[in-house]
Amino acid sequence: MITSGMDIQYLIKQIEDKINHQYIEQIVGKPHIDESKLVILANLVGRHPSLSEIEKEKLVITAMLVQIALDTHEQVPTWFKPDISNKEQERNHLRVLAGDYYSGLYYLMLSEIDAFDLIRTLASAIKEINEYKMKLYYLDYNFNGEYIDIVKKIEALLIYYVADYVNDSSLNELVGEWLIINRLYNEKQNIEDHKESTLLNKWLHNNSNYTSFISHANSIIQTKTDTLNELLDVLPQQYGSLKNYLNVKLNKENQSKASIVEEG
Amino acid sequence: MKLPKTYGYLKKDLDFIEAALHQTIQAEHPVLRSASTELLDAGGKRIRPVFVLLAARLGDFDLEKVKKVAVSLELIHMATLVHDDVIDEAELRRGKPTTMKLYGNRVAMYTGDYILARALEEITTLKDSDVHHILAKTIVEVCVGEIEQFKDKFNWDQNLRSYLRRIKRKTALLIATSCQLGAVAAGLTKAEAKKLYKYGYYIGMSYQIIDDILDFTSSAKELGKPAGNDLLQGNITLPVLYAIQNQSFRTHLEKLFKHPESVSGIEMNKIINTLQDTGSIEMSYSLSNQYLQKALRTLDELPNRRAKRTLQDIARYIGKRRS
């Protein structure tokens, strides 16, 4: 798929090559590459007039390395349970080191092209994201506006910082809306698959009220989707490929919702 | 004589760096701020800032510039410690509860990530290619070393070479980099900076070997953690590597550590006594000493200043360290 001159499949391959580590993959598995964020970053950076092709590529790849590092650390359980298998424990422990390793790779890659300001930009993003993660961790859960706002910041801050670096904040509102919708879709899916929800762990543990969360999440998704559609309608033509990508994603989610309703 | 006495004249600079460290980790979130500050206040020898300062004093010393390097290196070290405690599920560090124990894994992860990010924000105020090339490579190598150590847990078939490679990445690299970056920040020549890197590398190797020895020869009170803790964690260190050349001891250990969680304190004491009887402690000290001699020789051609004499004193002090 070509987006703003940047080939997403090529970028995925570059990221995979960069993070390739036989032992980590054997124990922890291949890290998830968040395609949505990759597409947004490619659109944001792809048309930037003052960056060379190499700089664009490195910017997108290193921002994704940071995202992968953060996501990997988010998989470390809040507390280690005494009754899990040695294999699972080994996986949890190695996630700590894997995240640190991916984080180190971003610095190494940018130091090779003397991109000091970008190293600093991404470090500032990591710093602020962790401040918000702490806020979320200690927030009394009631799924109100503040909770959703913090989650949105955790999801979108890395891209906001890159947007600031390339001096283009025109996508920020749209990015925030899409990323919170996407996160809620993912959390719903995780709950439906009976997996743990990293975002809602504390609350679900206290209430065990999955149905209530899902109906609440659906209503937020609906409101946010309406806003997103309005923003997509007025999106400048230069972001046509991003518009297509998000429309396809939204339609896919709607279809999946419709099929669940039909199946009862 | 205690180690800090050898560099007592650096106190003013070290206090300046200590204040900068505190200032750098003033997070907005109160728990993040507390966790970071507690980690800093838990002490530590600040050996990396000391090496940065001493190396820099061999060139054109600029405290503002040196401070940024020293603060970043100490923060990077701190970030690795807080994450290491999650991996080791360690409840104590330097006799005090770890971040993981006080606040849980999640906060420990956020604290480590936050501190590393602050280190990079700080160091990028220096627009010096050499500094970033060296530091970035070091960070990745340290991570690779940690992963290797993790992979080698309870691996009884590892050899001396793999142990040395591991401690190089675990400890020596960051000390070597501290010396090298201190030199770079003070405008020493590449050759001089390389010599200081080598000095730091040899010192770091010696220091880690002695640390590994002390795990078996010091008391729990002195260590701030149980004696033999490295072995309980599955880390096969030099005294063990030498000792398991005795086949019956090796067989005993392999059998016992199939279930490390059930090794009692009494059993660990017996292991420590047997290990000491094999002569492995003396052999380990001997290797550590060889590294120290190399460190001292490396300093020969460097400018004859007070800082050089202190680097020599530190090497001699490390050689005598017994607790």
Automatic annotation (TrEMBL), chain A:
It comes from the Bacteria. Gene3D superfamilies: 1.20.120.1450. One of its GO terms (biological process) is menaquinone biosynthetic process. InterPro entries: HEPPP_synth_su1. This is Heptaprenyl diphosphate synthase.
TrEMBL record, chain B:
Gene3D superfamilies: Farnesyl Diphosphate Synthase (1.10.600.10). InterPro entries: GerC3_HepT, Isoprenoid_synthase_dom_sf, Polyprenyl_synt, Polyprenyl_synt_CS. Its cofactor is Mg(2+). Keywords: Magnesium, Metal-binding, Transferase. One of its GO terms (molecular function) is heptaprenyl diphosphate synthase activity. The keyword Metal-binding applies. It is an enzyme of class 2 (transferase). The keyword Metal-binding applies. PROSITE patterns: POLYPRENYL_SYNTHASE_1, POLYPRENYL_SYNTHASE_2. Signal peptide: none annotated. It comes from the Bacteria. It catalyses: 4 isopentenyl diphosphate + (2E,6E)-farnesyl diphosphate = all-trans-heptaprenyl diphosphate + 4 diphosphate. It holds the Pfam family polyprenyl_synt. GO terms for biological process: isoprenoid biosynthetic process. Its EC number is 2.5.1.30. Heterodimer of component I and II. Belongs to the FPP/GGPP synthase family. PANTHER family: ALL TRANS-POLYPRENYL-DIPHOSPHATE SYNTHASE PDSS1 (PTHR12001:SF69), GERANYLGERANYL PYROPHOSPHATE SYNTHASE (PTHR12001). Supplies heptaprenyl diphosphate, the precursor for the side chain of the isoprenoid quinone menaquinone-7 (MQ-7). This is Heptaprenyl diphosphate synthase component 2.
